[in-house]
Design brief:
108 residues, mainly alpha, 4 helices, 66% helix, transcription regulation, bacterial flagellum biogenesis, transcription, flagellum, Negative regulator of flagellin synthesis
Length: 108
C-alpha cells in the first residue's frame, strides 16, 4: 500500500481556496444588498447641540494643561536627587502651596 501525501495537502489547499472565494462572494452580496447611506441635508445639522458635563469640562482643562506642560528635564531631576541625597535640598512651603492652589483652579 502506497500513501500519496501530496493528495491530502492539495485537497486541503483547494478546499480552503474555495471557502475563501465563497466568503468573498458572500461579503460582496451582503454589501450589494445593504441600504444606501442617508443623504446629508444641505442645511447640515442646524438643530444639534452638545452639552458637556462639569467633569468633561474639567477633563478638557486638564488635557489642555498637560499638553502645555514642558518635557521632563532629566538634568534638573538628577540635580534634585543629588541635593536630596546630600541633604542640601530645601523645601519651600509657600511655593508648594501656590502650586497646589494653581492646580485647584484647574479643577475648580
Amino acid at each position: 500500500m502506497v500513501i500519496n501525501s501530496n493528495n491530502g495537502v492539495n485537497n486541503a489547499n483547494q478546499t480552503n481556496t474555495a471557502r475563501e472565494r465563497n466568503g468573498v462572494e458572500r461579503n460582496a452580496e451582503s454589501n450589494a444588498k445593504a441600504p444606501a447611506p442617508a443623504q446629508e441635508s444641505k442645511l447640515g445639522n442646524v438643530g444639534d447641540k452638545v452639552m458637556l458635563s462639569p467633569e468633561a469640562k474639567s477633563f478638557g482643562k486638564l488635557s489642555a494643561a498637560v499638553a502645555k506642560a514642558p518635557e521632563v528635564d532629566s538634568e534638573k531631576v538628577a540635580n534634585i536627587k543629588k541635593a536630596i541625597a546630600e541633604g542640601k535640598f530645601e523645601v519651600n512651603p509657600e511655593r508648594i502651596a501656590a502650586k497646589m492652589l494653581q492646580q485647584e483652579d484647574l479643577f475648580g
